[in-house]
Amino acid sequence: MRVELFHLHYFLAVADELNLTRAAARLHLAASPLSRRIRDLERELGTPLFVRSSRGMALTAAGRALLPRAREIVRRVESLPGELAAADGHPVAAVGIAPDVSAAVRDGFLERVRAAHPELAVRIRPGASAELARSVGRGDLDLAFVHGRYDDDPQLAQRRVDSRPAGVAVGHGLGFDDRTGIRLDELTDLPYVSIRYDAAPSVYRATGELLARHGVHGRIELDTHNPGDLTHVVAAGQAFTLVGLGSGATHKAFVGEPVHVLPVLGADVRIGTEAVWRTDRAAADDVVRLLVAAAPGPGDGGPA
Fold first, then answer.
1. Which of 249, 261, 263, 273 registers the highest number of CB atoms within 10 A of its CB?
2. CATH 3.40.190.10 in the chain, residues?
3. 98: CB partners within 8 A, 6+ apart
4. Is 234:169 a contact under the CB 8 Å cutoff?
5. CA distance to 61, 69, 71, 100, per residue, from 64 (Å)
6. What is the pLDDT of residues 212-237, one digit of tens each?
7. 275 and 144 in contact (C-beta within 8 Å)?
8. Is this model's pTM higher than 0.85 or not?
9. What confidence tens digit (pLDDT) does each residue in 18-46 have?
């Protein structure tokens, strides 16, 4: 065996999560084969990379030493297509997009980029908001469209590019079948279900505060970053969730399910989208400057 790039991808996912189940979900793998791959890597390198215990996982000294090196190796390999394209006069930009970014924001941005620089190819990387923001900070992405604020990283700049109404997704047969709208205080007997809060910490913190003000205190946090996993819990009538009205991956996940998506009455519940980029790169890199200029202002991507 030899160390392959996928081993480093797997190592980075486990190092980021320090939990095999969450890392496997992020990689769309089962936990068992991921564990085997990590042990293969440890055997090849001749040293343990993680300490495993009943309390969870932690990096060993060797794991901590490998972490920045693995990130740099993966970054260099993933940047090769863009660097080679740039050498041929065809630059490539890497842009992250969170699940509930609207098609209007995405398509409007790409149209403006094409109009300003037809030869610039844009590679789209989907992902959870917090991870995309971290990737921008590391320089792995040139810009990202995310949900929530990331003011704890001083090198990041943000701009609100879109704000859309959110609705309640609730299962059939719970008393709302003939309704055209719903108040949050009508949901006090149902818990609110979400993906893991670390996908967009400031969003889920604000959502929890909003629901508590309306008397909704029950919570179910699924151990996943996949919005599609919410459908089973909501369709079964075990919880409700909040989704964009008419757009976004979470809304689309409920299409065809026995679920009502109803506008919220008596409260202004919205899903905001932020463009995030590194200030130093925008000052020094023409491509990043172009991407920032192409990101819509409030109202350009749809309703403000």
1. 273
2. 78-161+272-294, 164-270
3. 126, 127, 128, 129, 132, 144, 145, 146, 147, 200, 273
4. yes
5. 5, 9, 11, 34
6. 999 999 999 998 888 888 999 999 99
7. yes
8. no
9. 888 888 887 878 889 999 999 999 999 99
Task: State the angle between helix axes of 31-45 and 20-27 in degrees (0 to 180), rounded to the nearest 10.
Answer: 100
Q: What fold characterizes domain 78-161+272-294? A: D-Maltodextrin-Binding Protein; domain 2 (3.40.190)
Polymer length of the chain: 304
The backbone torsions φ and ψ at residue 82, rounded to the nearest 5 degrees and listed phi first, read -65, -40
- What single letter denotes the amino acid at residue 228? G
Burial class (CB within 10 angstroms; exposed 0-12, middle 13-18, buried 19+) of 151 = exposed
Q: Tell me which residue has tokens 């932020």.
A: 274
Q: What is the CATH number of domain 5-71?
A: 1.10.10.10
The neighbouring-strand residues paired with 51 are 58
Instruction: Locate 287 and state its tokens.
Output: 């491509």
